Structure prediction request, 324 residues.
Amino acid sequence: MVRASRGVDYAEFVQGLPKAELHIHIEGSLEPEMMWKLAERNGTSLPYESVDAIRQAYDFTCLQDFLDLYYAGMQVLEEERDFFELADAYFQRAERDNVRRVECFFDPQAHVARGVPLAHVMDGLSRAARKARERGVRVSFIVCFLRHLSEREAFRILEEAMPYRSEFIGVGLDSSELGNPPSKFERVFAAARDEGLRLTAHAGEEGPPSYIWEALDVLGVERIDHGNRALEDAALVSRLRRDQVPLTVCPLSNLKLAVVEDLAGHPLKRMLDLGLLVTVNSDDPAYFGGYVNANFTRVANALDLTPSDLTALADNSFVAAFRD
Ligand code: ADE
Ligand code: ZN
Prediction:
């Protein structure tokens, strides 16, 4: 049994904390079993001999390594019911972790580019969200722009998504960070803001602190997804603390993608001690070996977090949420 300081059982303590999950890519919750099932149902060929072989392939040395498998894996998603089943499974799983609110990323460009109608994506996700809301889980969606593509392509998907405007609350920026600075998307983020959308962006996962400055000052985002490398820049830390900009941190993702060497070296505790508004999230739980409670308990164990640290992290997730 994993024990926290003061004799608290981490797993039990974390289970008891209501929390919001603010950094989860729905396509990253595609478990190998579901990938296999959908591939059979849709006649998609997979480069794996078994479900076990899929899991064994999840050995990454950097973000791009992961992204290559992530985009390949999601090709099994085609029909409305595929997106429904994916999101429904994640919402049920999150609920078991005492997650009460989810602000869920998805990557529409990655589906439309394969010829999947946006209606299949939106209708399936929305149906799963309605079902979760009936159980009392508050669910919203955030459209992510793929930063390895052009700003023009980001504008195109934003326009295509507008008929579904009531189904999402914001836009984000994800995919290959290095070489794709936030400033590349200045105009499309301005257009999204004009539509009343909330703004967030991945920054400082692999990219330098300057990408976090750009996300804040050029894009005008309200949250930073990851933000690990902020700690290299004292002026940036002061800015994040002063404005209480939320950082959606993902410990097991950082471990699997070699952003940190081990969890004992994870910056989460330093971030808390510096007065930053940090939250704990699962990012792509099917690929990184754990949902949100596993992220909490494993990093708590590695960093010897106190019950009050854990409570602060869970409380922060509601403070950082776009919706009450
Ligand atoms: N897309 C899905 N997960 C991601 C991550 N951790 N970083 C960037 N893009 C992503
Ligand atoms: Zn992410």
About this structure: The chain has 16 helices and eight strands. The chain has one domain: 10-33+78-319.
